[in-house]
Design goal:
mainly alpha
């Protein structure tokens, strides 16, 4: 049995779509701080999609942090922190 990498989390189209929306929202946040709400929602939706396919909270957070690290630089610490908080909050919503 092979272990999936952070990017090989699922062939599920919903997860891939949620990941891409999250990445795009992060990119927009680099240009405009007004899109932080969009980042929070996109991060949350990504983590909810991961939960639906059976990812643990820890695994979902690792995957979300990988998207953040691969998309924005260290100057956007506030954006990253809010995205992580949103991920956790949305993950546990029913």
């Amino acid at each position: 049995m092979s272990h999936a990498t952070a990017y090989d989390i699922s062939d599920d189209d919903q997860v891939a779509s949620a990941r891409e929306r999250f990445r795009e929202a992060l990119l927009r946040s680099k240009r405009s701080r007004s899109s932080i709400g969009e980042v929070e929602v996109a991060a949350g939706k990504f983590c909810q999609a991961l939960r639906r396919i059976g990812h643990t909270p820890e695994r979902a957070l690792i995957d979300a942090k990988r998207v953040i690290d691969d998309t924005i630089d260290g100057d956007a610490v506030g954006v990253a922190e809010r995205a992580v908080a949103s991920c956790i909050r949305y993950y546990f919503q029913q």
